[in-house]
Design brief:
single chain; Glutaredoxin; 7-stranded mixed sheet; 4 helices; globular; Membrane protein; membrane; DUF3105; transmembrane
Length: 220
């Protein structure tokens, strides 16, 4: 019992620390936006040609670029780990991911807000994958999931920074948890695997860009 209380207290402290860090990043971002806007106006004439060249070289990459060879390997803890390369290019077209929901790969330059955000409708996979790159956990469900479980998971997500939630009709399992390169199914909101997964993968070691923002992205 004592160990469980210590684990809960540590997780609470970790969440509070991430909230403070997120607020600090928001303040820095506001300053950077003001500074960058001036620089962008000054550099548009010079950078226009470079931007066009960059897009022609791959900025508009299409679906095929993310179809990297790979497969899931399931660990003893029930977590499926993706074995194979996951692209991290910014693309502006649709991406044909090998699994639904995707666990990584090329993605849109804009991320979905993932600071405990709950989306009632499906969201764009390419934006969601960018959030995974920032160390967020994506909670998803299909039409077979029970309303009570969906509501309970939504309440948990709203309390947890670096998480977000949305329906994904194309997934096979009713309830799924996804982080960059990792995924597992859970039986319900009270499944102990939910808290275990969140504790391990929210800003976990798998994160390609630890500390990157989960705010100031897309909200729908």
């Amino acid at each position: 019992m004592g160990s469980a209380k210590k684990s809960s207290a540590a997780r609470t402290a970790r969440i509070e620390e991430m909230r403070r860090a997120e607020k600090a990043r928001e303040r820095r971002n506001r300053i950077l936006v003001i500074t960058a806007s001036v620089a962008v106006v000054a550099g548009l004439a010079v950078g226009g040609v470079v931007l066009v060249q960059s897009q022609s070289d791959g900025g508009g990459s299409s679906a095929g670029d993310a179809k990297n060879a790979g497969k899931f390997v399931t660990g003893k803890d029930g977590v499926r780990a993706w074995e194979g390369d996951l692209g991290r290019n910014h693309v502006t077209k649709a991406v044909d991911y090998p699994v639904t929901p995707p666990v990584g790969g090329d993605h849109n330059p804009a991320w979905m807000n993932c600071n405990g955000d709950v989306y009632a409708d499906e969201i764009n996979n390419t934006n969601a994958v960018h959030s995974l790159e920032h160390g967020a956990v994506w909670v998803t469900y299909n039409g077979d999931a029970g309303k009570a479980d969906v509501d309970a998971l939504a309440a948990k997500v709203k309390k947890t920074p670096y998480t977000f939630m949305s329906p994904v009709d194309g997934q096979k399992e009713p309830l799924l948890l996804t982080a960059w390169g990792h995924q597992r199914t859970v039986t319900g909101a009270d499944d102990p695997a939910v808290d275990t997964f969140l504790q391990k993968f929210v800003q976990g070691e798998q994160t390609p860009e630890p500390g990157a923002a989960c705010t100031n992205g897309l909200s729908k």
